[in-house]
Design brief:
This protein has helices spanning about 40-45, 50-75, 90-110, 120-130, 170-180, 185-195, 220-235, 240-270, 285-300, 310, 315-325, and strands at about 5-10, 15-25, 30-40, 80-90, 115, 135-140, 145-155, 155-160, 275-280, 305, 355, 360. The chain is an alpha/beta fold. Helix 5 packs antiparallel against helix 8. The structure holds 5'-O-[(R)-(carboxyoxy)(hydroxy)phosphoryl]adenosine and zinc ion. Zinc ion binds near residues 118 and 281.
Length: about 350
C-alpha cells in the first residue's frame, strides 16, 4: 500500500447508489464521507428490484452522490488521488452506469481508475473498520451473496463454500413477501420474530447432513410457503401470531445453518497469529445471526468482527478502500475497463451456479 492516498469510490451494482471518499495512510484508514441513496421506493410496487429502473436511477443519482461526497469531505476532485468503481458482479445496467461515470471522472481529471470487485469490497471491510490482519475468515452474507472466504491478501480469496441457490437475504425478502411483511424483508422478519415461537413449525436445516460449507436456502423457503398455504387453507388469513411464529421458525433455521457451517469453516482455518472471524453484508445486521456467530467464534478463540451496519450493507467506502488496498499489488485500469455481471472472487475454483434476483452470485 502506498502512503496516504485519498480515493473516491462509486457503487451502483444493485439498488443503492453510493459515493464515498476514503483516505488510507500509514496510520490506518479514514472514511471522510459516505453517501448512499437507496431506491426502495422506486421498486416497492414491484416486490423486488427491477434492473432497468435501477440502472436509470443510478445514472441519474451517481453525480449527485459524488457531489455530496465531495461536499461532506470538504474536498474538490483535484484533491483525489484515484477513482474506484464497482465493476461487477451485479446487475449489469447499474454496474455499467457506475463504470461510465468513473471513466468520465478519470478522463476529466487524469486520475488513475480502479475497477473493483463488489465482493472484494465487502470482504476487505474488516480491514477498513478494525484493521484485521491477514489471513482472516469471512462470511459474506447479503441479499445477493453468501460465501465463506479465506482472505489472505488484498486480492487473495479462497472460497471455502457458498450457497448453491438463494442467498439468505433473498430468502428473508421472499419469506417476508409470503407472510405479508414489508420490504426489505430482513429487518421486518427480525422484528416480527421477536414475539414468535421458533418451535411451533419444524422447518428444515438444508445441507447440514452433507459435509463441507456449502449452503442452500431455497428448500427452506418452500417449506415456509407450504406451511403458510396450509394455514391459509384452514383460516381466512394469517394472524399476527402466525406471522411471528413463521418468521421466528424461519430465522431460527437460518441461524442454525449459518452457525453449523461457520463452525466447519472455522475448523479448517488456521493462522499464525490472532485468528479473526468476520462477517459482512446486509444479513450480518441481524442480531440473532450476529449473536450466534459470535458464540461459534468464541468456541474457536477467534476474534469476532462485525462492521457497523452502514459498512455491512452496500456502500462506496468499501470500494474506495479496496482500491487503496489493491493499489500496491496491481496497476490501475485503463479506459477499456468493462462491467462484469459475474466476477467470482476465487479465480481457482469453478464459480458457484445460479443467479439471484438481486444480481449474479459468484
Ligand atoms: O448487503 P446488502 O445491503 O445488499 C446486497 O444484497 O448486496 O444486503 C441487503 C439484504 C436484504 O436482502 C435485506 O433483507 C437483508 O440484507 N437484511 C437483513 C437484515 N437487514 C438487512 N436480513 C436479516 N436481518 C436483518 N436485520
Ligand atoms: Zn453487497
Amino acid at each position: 500500500m502506498q502512503p496516504s492516498q485519498t480515493i473516491l469510490g462509486l457503487e451502483s451494482s444493485c439498488d443503492d447508489t453510493a459515493a464515498a471518499i476514503v483516505r488510507v495512510g500509514e496510520d490506518g484508514a479514514q472514511v471522510l464521507s459516505s453517501v448512499v441513496l437507496g431506491q426502495a421506493e422506486l421498486h416497492a410496487a414491484y416486490g423486488g428490484v427491477v434492473p432497468e429502473i435501477a440502472a436509470r436511477a443510478h445514472a441519474e443519482k451517481l453525480d449527485i452522490c459524488v457531489e455530496q461526497a465531495l461536499t461532506q469531505a470538504n474536498m474538490t476532485l483535484s484533491q483525489i488521488d484515484g477513482i474506484a468503481v464497482t465493476a461487477g458482479p451485479g446487475l449489469i445496467g447499474g454496474v455499467v452506469s457506475g463504470v461510465m461515470c468513473a471513466k468520465g471522472l478519470a478522463a476529466a481529471t487524469g486520475k488513475p481508475l480502479y475497477g473493483v470487485n463488489h465482493l472484494a469490497g465487502h470482504a476487505l471491510t474488516p480491514r477498513l473498520t478494525d484493521g484485521v490482519a491477514y489471513p482472516y475468515l469471512m462470511l459474506l452474507v447479503s441479499g445477493g451473496h453468501c460465501q465463506f472466504l479465506l482472505v489472505s491478501g488484498p486480492d487473495r480469496f479462497n472460497r471455502l463454500g457458498g450457497t448453491i441457490d438463494d442467498a439468505p437475504g433473498e430468502a428473508f425478502d421472499k419469506i417476508a413477501r409470503l407472510i405479508g411483511l414489508p420490504q426489505p424483508g430482513g429487518p421486518a422478519i427480525e422484528e416480527t420474530a421477536r414475539s414468535g415461537d421458533r418451535n411451533r413449525f419444524a422447518f428444515p436445516r438444508p445441507l447440514l447432513d452433507r459435509p463441507g460449507c456449502d449452503m442452500s436456502f431455497s428448500g427452506l423457503k418452500t417449506a415456509v410457503l407450504r406451511t403458510r398455504d396450509s394455514l391459509l387453507a384452514q383460516q381466512s388469513g394469517l394472524t399476527r401470531q402466525d406471522q411471528a411464529d413463521l418468521a421466528a421458525g424461519f430465522q431460527a433455521a437460518v441461524v442454525d445453518v449459518l452457525s453449523e457451517k461457520s463452525r466447519r469453516a472455522l475448523e479448517t482455518y488456521t493462522a499464525d497469529g490472532e485468528r479473526s472471524f468476520c462477517v459482512a453484508g446486509g444479513v450480518a445486521a441481524n442480531q440473532a445471526i450476529r449473536a450466534a456467530l459470535e458464540t461459534v467464534s468464541s468456541h474457536f478463540n477467534a476474534k469476532f468482527v462485525a462492521p457497523p451496519l452502514a459498512l455491512c450493507t452496500d456502500n462506496a467506502a468499501m470500494i474506495a478502500f479496496a482500491a487503496a488496498e489493491q493499489a500496491g499489488t496491481r496497476p490501475p485500469d485503463d479506459m477499456t475497463l468493462s462491467a462484469r455481471p459475474r466476477w467470482p472472487l476465487d479465480r481457482v475454483q469453478a464459480p458457484m451456479l445460479g443467479s439471484g434476483k438481486k444480481g449474479a452470485k459468484a
